[in-house]
Amino acid sequence: MLKGKITAKLFAFLVFTDVLETFIHFCFKRGATSHGVHQVNALPDLFFFLQGVFLSPYIWIGLLSVAVAFTLWSTILSKIDLSVAVPVCSFSYIFVPIASIIFLHEKISLLRWGGILMILIGVILVSLTSKDKESLL
Amino acid sequence: MKEGMFFILFLIAMTSVCDTVNQIFLKSAINSLHVSLSGNIFKILKFIFRLILVPRVWVSFVFSILSLSMWLFVLSKIDLNLAFSLDSMHYIFIAFASQHILKEKVCFKRWSGILFIILGIVLVSIS
Question: Is the ipTM of this complex over 0.85?
């Protein structure tokens, strides 16, 4: 019973890490483009660019998220094989379409449902191969 | 345009390679510590502190920065859907590297699961 609890937590960790990863990309992208400098041709330009980047709050939120994601991901990897952890992370490809159905009331095409189903089958198959004490599902 | 596209494809492949190298180094550093963690937050923090003192982790950091910068560059050039479906090839790299470098046992079932995931991602991305 306790074992089941821990693995459910591990699964939640995996999903949260993946969401955080997307958030980090978003933060860095915003931080790097939020100010005026678009062309870096000379050393002073680079200085202004970096000054702008590091004054942006997005970069600091992003860096903090990196630290949290690294902690979570390392904890996960200390428990399961790399070739299990990485494929199971693809679960986020299912969350995005489902979130867009629920919150944005988007219509999902049949092809996309097929894709979601295939990812789900794949994740379950990969999880099943993980050793008994490390099983995720 | 054609040459530019080749360059982008090359960059996506390099992003996948860098990401794989990053994960392999991180996992091998974690394996070298021989820990089994419980849910205790202090134990986890202590583990992280010991982990960042392992030189291999710093190699992994360098590659993750490389991979992130290339990825952001790629995303600014091409369609998100195409980028994501092409990036799914890194699952193959990871499985292959785990099998041969980390000596993990990637059995037929796990390979077929990975194949399903890749097909699924391509379907989700193109539709």
Answer: no
